[in-house]
Structures are given as structure tokens and as C-alpha cells.
Amino acid sequence: MSLKGSRQDNFFFCLIEYFPDSDRWFLKNVLQVKDEQGVNGDEAVGRWLDRYGTHSLVVDFPLSKPACQDCNLKCPGMSQCPVESVTNVQKRILKLLSEDRSILDENPKQYERNRNLDDEFDAQKDILQKSADQHLLSRSFKRRLKKGYLPYWNRPLDLWIWSRYYDQLLDIFNISFDSFGNTSLMIMSRMAYLRHQFPQHFSLYESNVNILLIELWRAKIIHKKDLVALSDLEEGAVARLDIIKKIEKALNIFIYDHDLELVVSHPRAFESFLLAISGQRFLQNEIYPLPFWTEPQKSSFIVPEF
Description:
Blueprint: E1 11-19, E2 24-33, H1 41-51, E3 56-59, H2 84-106, H3 108-119, H4 139-147, H5 156-173, H6 185-195, E4 203-206, H7 209-218, H8 224-230, H9 236-250, E5 253-254, H10 257-265, H11 267-283, H12 296-299
Parallel strand pairs: 2-5, 3-4
Antiparallel strand pairs: 1-2
Helix pairs in contact: 2-3, 8-9, 9-10, 10-11
């Protein structure tokens, strides 16, 4: 379920289920979260989870907190922060920048030649060929590292995502990833309320739609042109349909026509569907393991592998 947007936005709950007899996944329901007569939309989410016997839910909301939020220390400033999760990330950032500096010092002319080649626009360039933390670091990634890690804004997970996806996210979607970059106080309060509505022994996971789309592209299930078309007002719906059809075929998922129409027509429903796909990959153990320093036990973040 995608939780982005305001209180008045349309939220959609996408439920997928596996049927072992047919060895196939079904998009069982696409339910719109809205206020109805006698039932508050937020309360309906908990009722749906209970009604359908749902055991886990994937959202696009940060499930862990930044280090500063629960810190009781007298703050010495970010550069002097003694919190281990913060110092681990800062050391990794310094290591990347130091390596880059060493390459420059060793052969400045070759560094500049490589830098100029990297800056050239090439429509055929495979931006999936290397992760952002592989040298030569892009100018944009270096700028991001130099801006630093904000322990009241970022989580350790952020550096791992920057290191792997920063250049691709910027190139395709023109965005960066910051855990609390577009998370409003209203959405945080809403999520805190929703958690009280969830059944007992319920598992919550976090994922990111844009990262999932990049991994679908990496697996050649979809194409770059599909991703570019998503942001086009005229072509967006067609792009969503094409992507869904390709996912349906590649991942053995059956979608009823009326649910397909909903997911294609509403971008928020489309995002919720993709989050459900992250959940499917998790259940099949088709995910990338996160390193210990990202604190995966706190974030429960899913990066699907296809």
C-alpha cells in the first residue's frame, strides 16, 4: 500500500495471493482507501487485513527512525556524533571520497579524461553497468557525498541506496533518495495510527517503487522507454499498462480485467501494486541481502531481485 500524498488523496490496498494448486499468483483485490458511510477510510485498512487473513504488508514509508529522533545525548554536532550507526556511515563516505582523491592525485590527466568521458551524453550508454560507488564516481554522486549524512533526516540505509542507485534514480526519475525527504508529519501520524489497527502478529515491510522499477529494467522485464513514459501525462497510462502486462507474464501473476483497469487508471494504485510485487519477491526469497550496517532488522527494507 502506497502511503504517499495527503489525507485527501486516493490510497489503494493491493492484495496478491499464491495458489499452490495452479502454481500461480493472483491479484485478489484492489481496494480504495476512502471514507464511506459509517466507516473511516483509515479504519477500513485494519478491517481489510483482518477480513482477508493478511499476514504482511509492504508500504513506501520509513519504518525505522533516524538516529537523532531517539537520541538523549547532549549533541556535540554532526561531525562529532558518537552514535555508532552515524559514525559507520560517515567513515564509509570519507573512504569513498578519499579513494576518489587518491585516483585523482595518482594521475590527474587520466582522471580528467575519464571524467570528461563520463560527462558526455550517450543515448546508448548502459547506466546499469556500474553502481554509483564504483570509481570513477559521477559528479552528482560526489556532490551528494560531500553534502554529508544528516542523522536527523537520513538512515544508514540511505547510503547503501545512494551507493547502488543514485545515478540511475537521478537519470531516470530526476530524484534522490532521502528517507524523510518527502515524508510529512501528517503521513507519519497517519502511519502511527494505522499500526494500532493492524492485527496481532502482523509483519510490516518497506520498499521503494522506483528501485523496484530499476530492478525490473535490470532484469530486462521492462525497458528504459517504459520508465521514461511513466512521467508523461499523455503516455503515463499506456506505460503503466505495458509494465503491468510484462510483470504479469514474467512473474506468473493473473490480474482480472476490472482490477487491471483500476491499477492502470490510478497512479497510486499502480504504486501499491508494485509494492505488492516486492512482497511477492520477499516471500519467494528473491531479494538482495542488506549489509549489517544498514540496520535491516530495523528498517525491514525489501530490495527485490528478478
